[in-house]
Amino acid sequence: MKEVYITKISKFLPNRPISNDEMEDKLGIINGKASKGRRIVLRNNQIKTRYYALDDDGNVTHNNAQLAKEAIEQLFDENFTSSDIDLLSCGTSSPDQILPSHAAMVHGFLKCDNVEINSPSGACCSGMNALKFGFLSVKSGQTNNAIASGSERISSWMKGHIFENEIKHLQALEDNPILAFNKDFLRWMLSDGAGAFLLENEPNGETPLRIEWMEGYSYAHELEACMYAGGDKLENGFLKPWSEYKTSDWSEKSLFAIKQDVKLLSANILKKGVDSLKRALTKHDLKPSEIDYYLPHISSHFFKDKLYQEMVDNGVEIPWENWFMNLSKVGNVGSASIFLMLEELAHSGKLKKGQKILLSVPESSRFSYAYALLTVC
């Protein structure tokens, strides 16, 4: 088995940073009324700026595959060109279309040579699953290198016009025409961007990071769907897909909008997260005190203190001074967030040889978790 190193890291954040006060202008007001939930959500998540693939007039500047392509192209130099890629593995929560696959579309924009492609589905863990596929491919010797990416273009899913038919339908029924909080909530949480890693079987680059192991856990056998799109959840918890609805229901119910069961999220995301963390640390006989940098993908600062207390209560406390996050600056970029965190840390000048970095990514869709341990070489 080969060793696997992250030898280059890149990011692409489209356009300019968007402040909290600009968000509703960018995404649009629904039914002529400002969102009642926006200030509450922003106060809790403590995100100050984020990025959208929209210009100042609200026009789309990049699709998802183009965001990934922009990040990946920054990995190329005279020592590694697009012609050298063996494997392209691209994860996302928000593909531009159902078919072709996301990685196929990214490959199309790159216009490089023939390569193997992989498109893991899912939400935030899709980026880590893209990384794991590349890691296993290089480790097994199947390929000498791999590019893994995580990217999101979620802004166009959250624009006000997406919900216009639903509001009109509620008005026709003489119901209160206010967007349900489980849909409005995520409009103020998610944003656009992309990150990419180059994986190689030799420790090239200035500060290569060796991937020691990766682990993943799912709790779908215990819990129903929590975050979903392309369907609606029935009272019994069953997720009914868009293909079983009438086409008129697609817009009247905003079936393709992303929705979050906030109560289910709060009751389980931290508990299952720490349970999976304990499983990973125990399996690899890793003590929390041996982790120099802990990079948790947290959707909101609302969960930060609660996560720490859950870790303390379960005997897996990682000291605050070892945590590294950039949520407040770049926002919650789903599958790309862990790439953006590691990119900032790797280019900070803080890393020292021998240090251990733990990547931690939860996915609330149906409660999945992914981990990776890295060593600075």
From TrEMBL:
Residue stretches making up the Beta-ketoacyl synthase-like N-terminal domain: 120-202
Molecular-function GO terms, alphabetical: acyltransferase activity
Beta-ketoacyl-[acyl-carrier-protein] synthase III C-terminal domain boundaries: 281-360
CDD domains, sorted: init_cond_enzymes
Keyword entries, A-Z: Acyltransferase, Transferase
Protein's GO biological process: secondary metabolite biosynthetic process
Domain of life: Bacteria
Pfam families noted in UniProt: ACP_syn_III_C (PF08541), ketoacyl-synt (PF00109)
InterPro entries: ACP_syn_III_C, Ketoacyl_synth_N, Thiolase-like
Listed name of the protein: 3-oxoacyl-[acyl-carrier-protein] synthase-3
Species the sequence originates in: Bizionia echini
